[in-house]
Amino acid sequence: MIKKRFFKTKDEVEVTFEWPKGDIKNIALAADFNQWEATPMKLNKKTKTYNVKVRLPKNQSYQFRYLINESLWENDPKADGYIKNNYGDDNSILSTSVTV
User: Fold this and answer.
1) Which residues pair with 7 in a beta bridge?
2) Origin, by domain of life (predicted)?
């Protein structure tokens, strides 16, 4: 799941990426905004979700995926859209525009 927080006085958006714990031992976020380097997500034991927050410029579009247990790629079911990648699969799309 993706949560977006828009700031009135800043040209950036705080984005929280979340994924339910389930049987997952570790999960990372890989995206074009982090050069597709797998950024580990932290487990919130209270909500039983993994999450990571990033701040990104407004009015941009980004591609991302989740890497689960270091081997399984997943898209976000709440993404703003999907686009084919070079590996025959889809990437999730995140839009930081106020209106999507």
Assistant:
1) none
2) Bacteria
Q: What percent of the chain has pLDDT over 90?
A: 91
Q: How far apart are CA 68 and CA 32, in angstroms?
A: 18
The whole-angstrom separation of Cα 48 and Cα 87 is 31
**69: closest CA among 25, 29, 14, 37?**
25
Q: Are 95 and 61 spatial neighbours (Cβ–Cβ below 8 Å)?
A: yes
CATH number of the domain that 15 lies in? 2.60.40.10
pTM higher than the cut 0.90: yes
Range of the domain at 80: 2-95
State both tokens at 96.
């930081």
Contact 13, 5 (CB under 8 A): yes
Q: Which of 6-10, 61-65, 81-85 has the lowest mean pLDDT?
A: 6-10
